[in-house]
Specification:
The protein is built from 1 helix and 3 strands, in the order E-E-E-H. With 67 residues, it is α+β, with helices and mostly antiparallel strands. The protein has a domain of 42 residues. A 3-stranded antiparallel sheet has the order 1-2-3, covered by helices on one side. The chain is flat.
Length: 67
């Protein structure tokens, strides 16, 4: 199955999250963070198999600069 990874940087680490499952992991590079996320997601799904699957909807919104 194909899952999504959302990656952002926090200080020295890259944090990767899978919105379909709710798993997260980190690494010193984007590739390491995604590889760790893959492993964490595989382990999670072994314990808690999903009955249904859907990709999240990604959109954007604007906030005033003074907020």
């Amino acid at each position: 199955m194909l899952y999504s990874a959302i990656v952002h940087k926090e200080d020295e680490w890259y944090v990767a999250e899978c919105p379909e499952v709710g798993t997260a992991s980190q690494g010193v590079s984007i590739e390491e963070a995604v590889a760790n996320l893959k492993e964490a997601t595989e382990l999670y799904l072994e314990e808690f198999p999903q009955k249904t699957f859907s990709h999240p909807l990604l959109t954007t919104f604007e906030v005033p600069a003074y907020a």
